[in-house]
Amino acid sequence: MNEKIAVIDDNYSICKALARLLNGHGYNVEIYTSAPEFLLHARDTELGCVILDINMPNMSGLQLQEILIDRKYDYPIVFISGCGDIPSSVTAIKKGAVNFLQKPVVEQDLLQSICEAIALHRKHQDQKRDYLLTEQAVETLTAREMEIFRYIITGKLNKQIAYYLRITEKTVKVHRARVKQKLHVKSIVDLVRIADKVGIKPISLAES
Amino acid sequence: MNEKIAVIDDNYSICKALARLLNGHGYNVEIYTSAPEFLLHARDTELGCVILDINMPNMSGLQLQEILIDRKYDYPIVFISGCGDIPSSVTAIKKGAVNFLQKPVVEQDLLQSICEAIALHRKHQDQKRDYLLTEQAVETLTAREMEIFRYIITGKLNKQIAYYLRITEKTVKVHRARVKQKLHVKSIVDLVRIADKVGIKPISLAES
DNA sequence: AGAAAAATGGGGCTTTGGGGCAATAGCGAT
DNA sequence: ATCGCTATTGCCCCAAAGCCCCATTTTTCT
C-alpha cells in the first residue's frame, strides 16, 4: 500500500523535486515548508516517515526532532542538510534519526534510508499496537485486583498474599481468578509476560 | 578507582597530549599509535573506554570499531577526527560510538564524553556479569531438563509435558524439581524471568 | 435512595504441584 | 567390570490452586 511521507524543507523547489521523485516510487508525499507548519498537521495523519531539512528559519530540523520526541510521535526521521556540521549529525543520529544525508542528495541513498525508515516505523507500530492491547486489558483491573496481580508475579502463594493483605485465602483465590479471566490467560507464566510487557513491577520487600 | 583508557591515534604527540590531560584527571592511560597495535593488547586489559582517531594508515578508526563489535569487545568508543566527514560520524554513532569529536578537541567535551562512556561501560559490565551468572546456572541443565524447562515456560501442565514427551507425569515432576533446584528458584515466575533473561524461547506449536 | 459493582467470605470438591523413598535401566569413563 | 550420572517410574501423602454454588458487606455511581 501507499506509504505517506512528509517532506519538510524551507526551500519549496527542493520539496517539489523530492515529492516528484518519491511519487515516482509509489509514495504519497506531503510537503511542508516550515517545521511549525508541519506541527499543525502532524497529528492528523499517519506517516511512514519524515524527510527533514536541518537548516530552516523559525525552527531548525533538530528542534523539530526534539519536539516530536517529546510528543511521542515516533515517526522515523531522515535528515537532509545543505550545510550541516558533524555535531548536528551526531545529535540527530543519537536521538534516533535513521540517516543524515547531505545535499545534493544521492537518490539511491535517500530511497534506501526511506525504506529503512518505513520498515522501522512498521515495527514500532506493531509493537505499539500489541502494547496498547495488553495495557487496555490491564486497565480493566480494579485496584485490588492489581494489587493481587503484583503479588502473584512476585511469586507469592495465595496464603501469603492473604496474610499480607489481611484477608482470607478464599478472597485471594477469587481475585486471582478474576485477574486471569480479565487478562485472557490460563497460566501464571502468561501473567508474568504481561506484567513485564506493560512494566508492572513485582512487589518489593520494602513496600510489603 | 582509576579507570583505564586507551588512546589510539597515529600521531604520537597527540597521544601524549591526551595522555597528559587524562592523567591529570585521574585516568590511567594506554597509548597506541595504530589500530593493529591496539588489537594485540586489547584482550589483556580491562578498559573503561577507548579514544579513537578516525584517519589512520593501515586501519581506520571505523574499521577498528567494526572489528571490536565483531569480537564482542564492548568498550565504549569516543571518536576524534582531524578531517572527519558527516558519513563517517553517522556510521560511527549508528554503531554505538559514544561521541564523535573534531580536532582540536575541546577539553570539556572530551571529559564529558569519557564520563558517559565509562558510565555506559560500567552498566554493560554489570548486565554482563548478571547475564553470565544465570547463563552459567542454565548450562548445568541436562538436555532433558532443558526440554522440560522450555515446556514449563510455555505454560504447559506436567500432564501435558508428559504426554508430549511420552513419559509419565512423575518423571516430569522429578525433572521439574531438578530444574528449579539447579536454577536456585522456588517459583515458576522466577523460571520465566530466567528464561527471558538468557533468551530461552517457549516451545512453539510447530516444534511440538 | 437505589441499583450496580466490587470486595469479602464459606463449604466442598477436583486437579495440579511437590517431596520422599525405592527401584530399574542405559551409557560413558576408569 | 564397576562406578557415576541420567532418565525413568512406582507408591504414598500433603499442600496449593482452581472451580462450583452460595451469601454478606462495602463502595460507587446514578
Determine the fraction of residues in helical runs of chain A and give it as a percent range.
55-70%
H/E element order of chain A: EHEHEHEHEHHHHH
Write the CATH fold name of the largest domain in chain A: Rossmann fold
pLDDT < 50 stretches of chain A:
none
Rg over alpha carbons of chain A: 24 Å
Could you report the average pLDDT of chain A, rounded to the nearest whole number? 94
Oligomer designation? homodimer
Distance between the termini of chain A: 52 Å
**Biggest interface, residues from each chain:** A-B, 24 and 24 residues
How would you sum up the global shape of chain A? elongated
| Lateral strand order in the biggest sheet of chain A | 2-1-3-4-5
* CATH architecture identity of the largest domain in chain A: 3-Layer(aba) Sandwich
Count of domains of chain A:
2
Domain Response regulatory (chains A, B): 4-118
Domain HTH luxR-type (chains A, B): 134-199
Protein name (chains A, B): Response regulator transcription factor
GO biological process, one term (chains A, B): regulation of DNA-templated transcription
Question: Care to describe what's here?
Answer:
- The structure is a homodimer of 208-residue chains.
- Chain A has two domains: 4-126, Response regulator (Rossmann fold); 140-207, Arc Repressor Mutant, subunit A (Orthogonal Bundle).
- In chain A, β4 (77-81), α4 (86-94) and β5 form a beta-alpha-beta unit.
- With 208 residues, chain A is of the alpha/beta class.
- A five-stranded parallel sheet of chain A has the order 2-1-3-4-5, with helices on both faces.
- The mean pLDDT of chain A is 94.
- Chain A is built from nine helices and five strands, in the order βαβαβαβαβααααα.
- Chains A and B meet through α4, β5 and α9 of A and α4, β5 and α9 of B.
- Chain A binds a DNA duplex (30 and 30 nucleotides) through residues 142, 144-145, 157-159, 167-171, 173-178.
- Chains A, B: Residues 4-118 form the Response regulatory domain.
- Chains A, B: The modification 4-aspartylphosphate is found at residue 53.
- Chains A, B: Keywords: DNA-binding, Phosphoprotein, Transcription, Transcription regulation.
- Chains A, B: This is Response regulator transcription factor.
